């Protein structure tokens, strides 16, 4: 997988709940920092998963230096707080116009994810770190929802612009700040999508288990992202039972043969994607030492 992350600036790890996104993102960040890159790992998780895996408190607004790893910082964006900021910005824009989409947008089920993504965006233009690793990639669904208000913004802004011309002719004052704000938001969103879709700077990796539901979810995510021209080149298949531990144990053998069946399906269904298997560890993954083990498996 090392080839895939070479020269990238943004690494996104996505996937179904509990499949190992935080584990893979954090281990990747540790590996990169160990290689000498100034690395930031960002999570947008209502829980404190980053703090748990790094076994230290990680800030919600200020990036926190990871004590045991040189070159590594972490940030745990709080989606609830982020959604406050996002909502305020949208509302400000919208209130001045029509109230056409502000409130409805904020009551969609993924409003928090949208807000979190909006916070991602502010890091996309930052030059403070060599590489930023995102625990939890925005899904195609989130991105489309996010695009909605800005499509509206675009629409309204065009309407306003037309009226501006008309207004000028008739000597009526329309727009002003609002029009500029709309344009800024529109650009911000377009720029974010452009960066996400740019395979030179960005890598999307989906994490899954060799099980039915994660496979379906992965297929859906790939399809949704592809509609936004965002490519997913790599899959990490996590928690594969190592064959050396089977030793005739019927239960483990049965589990592993089930995994083999799904690995076969994954191979066929995601034929063109790079795939990396990560073994099931005998414990959960916390602490730098475990993350270094995973990093070694992923990148050598
Ligand atoms: N290969 C592995 N072997 C053993 N335990 C693992 C492995 N990968 C992940 N785990 C454990 O599985 C649990 C879920 O992993 P993780 O928190 O990385 O998933 P996640 O996708 O980020 O979950 P969420 O969707 O809740 O954010 C954690 O307790 C983690 O330590
Ligand atoms: Mg997580």
CATH class: Alpha Beta
Number of strands: 8
**How would you write the strand order of the largest sheet?**
3-4-2-5-1-6-7-8
Write the element-wise H/E pattern from the N-terminal end onward. Answer: HEHEHEEHHHEHHEHEHEH
Helicity, as a percent range = 40-55%
Task: Give the helices and strands, then pairings.
Blueprint: H1 2-5, E1 10-14, H2 21-34, E2 39-43, H3 49-54, E3 64-65, E4 72-76, H4 79-95, H5 102-106, H6 111-124, E5 131-135, H7 140-170, H8 177-197, E6 202-209, H9 212-226, E7 234-240, H10 250-269, E8 274-279, H11 287-299
Parallel strand pairs: 1-5, 1-6, 2-4, 2-5, 6-7, 7-8
Antiparallel strand pairs: 3-4
Bound molecules: adenosine-5'-triphosphate (ATP) and magnesium ion.
Magnesium ion binds next to α2.
Structure, explained:
With 300 residues, the chain is of the alpha/beta class. The protein has a single domain, classed as P-loop containing nucleotide triphosphate hydrolases (Rossmann fold, 3-Layer(aba) Sandwich), CATH 3.40.50. Helices cover 53% and strands 14% of the residues. The protein has eleven helices and eight strands. The protein has helices at 2-5, 21-34, 49-54, 79-95, 102-106, 111-124, 140-170, 177-197, 212-226, 250-269, 287-299; strands spanning 10-14, 39-43, 64-65, 72-76, 131-135, 202-209, 234-240, 274-279. An eight-stranded mixed sheet has the order 3-4-2-5-1-6-7-8, with helices on both faces. α2 (21-34) packs across α11 (287-299) and α4 packs across α6 (111-124). The radius of gyration is 22 Å and the shape is globular. The mean pLDDT is 82. It binds adenosine-5'-triphosphate and magnesium ion (MG). Adenosine-5'-triphosphate binds at residues 15, 17-23, 45, 49, 238-239, 278, 280-281, 284-285.
